[in-house]
From TrEMBL:
Transmembrane segments: none annotated. Binds 1 pyruvoyl group covalently per subunit. Is synthesized initially as an inactive proenzyme, which is activated by self-cleavage at a specific serine bond to produce a beta-subunit with a hydroxyl group at its C-terminus and an alpha-subunit with a pyruvoyl group at its N-terminus. The active site is at residues 26, 59. The keyword Ligase does not apply. Catalyzes the pyruvoyl-dependent decarboxylation of aspartate to produce beta-alanine. GO terms for biological process: alanine biosynthetic process; pantothenate biosynthetic process. It comes from Rosistilla ulvae. This is Aspartate 1-decarboxylase. GO terms for cellular component: cytosol. It is an enzyme of class 4 (lyase).
Length: 134
């Protein structure tokens, strides 16, 4: 049976707070955000840099509980800078039956990386059709 690669989790529009070129690699994420999204330490994660229009892949590591720090480490620090808005996304493989009912875990954060709300995502055309202030 074929498998499909689907979005598993997304932390939407997080604000990068640090970049450490000398660290071995990865992106540091507060454990509260990782838990909410269902992301585990060392899981492969994509970083979509909304500010710069770039994408890269690394792995997630837990930061300090209670912190709001999101830090690009190692080579990623060449592409992700403090203040950048990023989308952090993981993917997983699902068989046809699971894919038909799969819903990714979507975490939307504010400018201080605190959870505003959790999914679902509003499709672009629907979002643009909403009245101002809703």
């Amino acid at each position: 049976m074929p498998f499909r690669k689907l979005l598993s989790a997304k932390i939407h529009r997080a604000t990068v707070t640090g970049a450490d070129l000398e660290y071995e690699g990865s992106i540091t994420i507060p454990p509260e955000l990782m838990e909410a999204a269902g992301i585990v330490p060392y899981e492969s994660i994509q970083i979509w840099n909304v500010t710069r229009g770039s994408r890269l892949e690394t792995y997630a590591i837990e930061g300090v509980r209670g912190s709001s720090d999101i830090c690009a480490n190692g080579a990623a620090a060449h592409h992700v800078y403090p203040g950048d808005k990023v989308i952090l996304a993981t993917f997983a493989f699902y068989d046809r039956d699971d894919a038909a009912t799969h819903c990714p875990r979507l975490i939307f954060v504010d400018d201080h990386n605190q959870i505003k709300h959790e999914g679902p995502e509003i499709a672009g055309p629907q979002r643009r059709a909403e009245p101002a202030g809703s």
